[in-house]
């Protein structure tokens, strides 16, 4: 029975890594589409999100079947529950990449990035891609050094997110209401993408160390109940 259980865990981990890889591709394409007004690339991200959703569902089904058949307890139970929540966060990250792509598509043939904010969004985009790639390695290797890298990158994303709001709400900002909305939404999507990665990293740290200090993020848990955020 233990061999069957461990095989199920391995299958779950492999599927989570696969989803994370697809999320990395999605955010990479979405940020390029957003920065360059590339509607074809944006359409690819939107179309490919279905695959992320399907894989996330397959993880959930496998995890639930494992709970029912193996009835794990203690740490084994926490691993399965964490896998379910990780799958949900990855699915949300895919949705956020899709939302960024939708912004790019909605403003075509113009670019969605308001003047004066391109460099900020380029930095945020690169950091989100970096976070996604690091998350893949964390899920694959369980090396906690990657968790620290994700947290550090997310701190910078949060700082950039704050500067976007400061700029669009300042009297010096030359854009109209639509530019303010686009900038606020895009910045929020980038920021939430990083937050979900941090949430996953905290769960992996907890499973490896038993330390739940700072692992419970109330904001993440509330937002997880809202589709697509």
UniProtKB/TrEMBL annotation:
Domain PhoU: 17-103, 122-203
Biological process annotations from GO: intracellular phosphate ion homeostasis; negative regulation of phosphate metabolic process; phosphate ion transport
SUPFAM superfamilies recorded: PhoU-like
Cellular compartment(s): Cytoplasm
Keywords: Cytoplasm, Phosphate transport, Transport
Listed GO CC annotations: cytoplasm
Keyword Metal-binding attributed: no
Disulfide bond recorded as keyword: no
PANTHER family named in the record: PHOSPHATE-SPECIFIC TRANSPORT SYSTEM ACCESSORY PROTEIN PHOU
Role of this protein: Plays a role in the regulation of phosphate uptake.
UniProt family annotation: Belongs to the PhoU family.
Subunit structure: Homodimer.
Name assigned to this protein: Phosphate-specific transport system accessory protein PhoU
Organism: Microbacterium barkeri
């Amino acid at each position: 029975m233990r061999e069957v259980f461990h095989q199920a865990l391995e299958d779950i981990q492999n599927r989570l890594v696969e989803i994370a890889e697809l999320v990395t591709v999605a955010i990479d394409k979405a940020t390029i589409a957003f920065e360059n007004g590339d509607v074809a690339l944006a359409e690819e991200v939107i179309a490919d999100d279905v695959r992320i959703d399907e894989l996330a569902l397959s993880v959930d089904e496998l995890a639930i079947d494992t709970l029912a058949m193996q009835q794990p307890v203690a740490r084994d139970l926490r691993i399965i529950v964490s896998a379910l929540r990780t799958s949900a966060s990855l699915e949300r990250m895919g949705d956020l990449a899709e939302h960024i792509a939708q912004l790019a598509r909605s403003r075509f043939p113009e670019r969605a990035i308001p003047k004066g904010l391109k460099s900020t969004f380029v930095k945020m985009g690169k950091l989100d891609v970096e976070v996604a790639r690091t998350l893949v390695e964390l899920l694959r290797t369980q090396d906690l050094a990657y968790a620290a890298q994700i947290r550090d990158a997310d701190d910078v994303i949060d700082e950039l997110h704050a500067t976007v709001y400061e700029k669009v709400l300042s009297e010096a900002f030359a854009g109209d209401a639509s530019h303010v909305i686009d900038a606020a939404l895009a910045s929020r999507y980038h920021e939430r993408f990083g937050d979900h990665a941090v949430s996953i990293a905290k769960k992996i740290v907890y499973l490896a160390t038993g330390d739940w200090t700072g692992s419970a993020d109330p904001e993440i848990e509330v937002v997880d109940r809202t589709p697509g955020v």
